[in-house]
Amino acid sequence: QVQLVESGGGVVQPGGSLTLSCAASGFSFSNYGMHWVRQAPGQGLEWVAFIRFDGSDKYYADSVKGRFTISRDTSRKTLYLQMNSLRPEDTAVYYCAKDVLDSNWYFDYWGQGTLVTVSS
Amino acid sequence: QPVLTQPPSVSGAPGQRVTISCTGSSSNIGAGYDVHWYQQLPGTAPKLLIYDSNNRPSGVPDRFSGSKSGTSASLAITGLQAEDDADYFCQSYDSSLSGSHVVFGGGTKLTVL
What we know:
Largest sheet of chain B: 6 strands, mixed
Structural class of chain B: mainly beta
Number of helices of chain A: 0
Radius of gyration of chain B: 14 Å
Largest interface: A-B, 21 and 24 residues
Oligomer: heterodimer
Distance between the termini of chain A: 40 Å
Distance between the termini of chain B: 29 Å
Structural class of chain A: mainly beta
Number of strands of chain A: 11
Largest sheet of chain A: 7 strands, mixed
Number of strands of chain B: 9
Strand content of chain B: over 45%
Shape of chain B: globular
Helix content of chain A: under 10%
Order of helices and strands of chain B: EEEEEEEEE
């Protein structure tokens, strides 16, 4: 069965950096686009970033463009989100989510999420 | 502010029917992009409930259905059950001058009375 397991969350000071990981299993990771979606405490969902199945294209929400970098390692079946210049408004649970195909732009499986808290 | 507009809350008694609306614009739902719905139970990750406006993934009861018309979409739940008490989010794709990306509604809290 499809499993997505995020890790790497924690508490970081404003301006700091953090890298999230998402270990994938139960499907052919190299064939699917992957996303990061976040949810601030008590709030709705916000799409963060997308990477195509082969890593050839990457897209970002305006709120994180220039600060966050999405990447993937096919050999490790792992998705990453490098987050720099973190702000308090980046505080959220970060979910990795599998695209239905390569770039259908919706999600059929989600991880359990990892909490990132940006605070001094 | 979320690009798609949903009512913050709806409620219904067990066995009743409720609908949740999702209103967009000409750059997303009105442009022909499909709408997808997710259910989020308390403390858990979202789960795909309806895709491509009116299709249910395997395992989702047929009590859940979706529709789309113009710049809006709706999720209908019939025969309400206590386990339906959750947050529901609509999602689509938006293509405007500022770029193209995934957009969500703000979410609707369904309370089963």
